[in-house]
Amino acid sequence: MSKFETHAQIAESKVVAVIRGSDAEEAIQLSKAAAEGGIRAIELTYTTPNVQKVFEELQYEDILLGAGTVLDPETARHAILAGAKFVVSPHFNKDVARICNRYGIPYFPGCMTIREMVEALESGCDVLKLFPANDFKPSFIKSVNGPLPQVKIMPTGGINLDNINDWLAAGAVAVGIGSDLNKAYKTGGYEAVVELSKQYINKISQ
């Protein structure tokens, strides 16, 4: 899959499920439930113990797998070799960008300032993660696109059913959701995550 195809699939999906499991099995169940609910892009975070097992379990599923909480180039390479089709960081790391460019994998670094965004753009990043998005309003995207009209932003953190369409209407290429899924799993298990994922898909289709 090319970088262009990955970008297109995420833009079409509009929702990326950010999966943080207390262990590999929980992450697998969260991912499968989100996929069953209609979410086609899954970000497996490297805070999950034995995340390699999660990649192995999900690689044959009909979903786009990415890696999250990637803090250094060594982790980025591990993720890419494990099957990640995109790499996400909470911050911008030039060495991670270099590794991703080398393997033709999109890199979505977390950026909050214009300076960080320009540096990421100059390193080949096409989509930038706004994190934590709950510190901003959706209108922030329009403000950024004034001086940087080419910037595509994926807000993550604080996205929920009440504000997801506000962010998409403001110009977000996609959004990342995670804490809602974890809460649903802890209170209602697998089926609760399936139902919540369906609600997100229905919400963005309205």
Automatic annotation (TrEMBL):
Keywords: Carbohydrate metabolism, Lyase. InterPro entries: Aldlse_KDPG_KHG, Aldolase_TIM. It comes from the Bacteria. It is an enzyme of class 4 (lyase). Its EC number is 4.1.2.14, 4.1.3.42. Pathway: Carbohydrate acid metabolism. GO terms for molecular function: (4S)-4-hydroxy-2-oxoglutarate aldolase activity; 2-dehydro-3-deoxy-phosphogluconate aldolase activity. Belongs to the KHG/KDPG aldolase family. Homotrimer. This is 2-dehydro-3-deoxyphosphogluconate aldolase/(4S)-4-hydroxy-2-oxoglutarate aldolase.
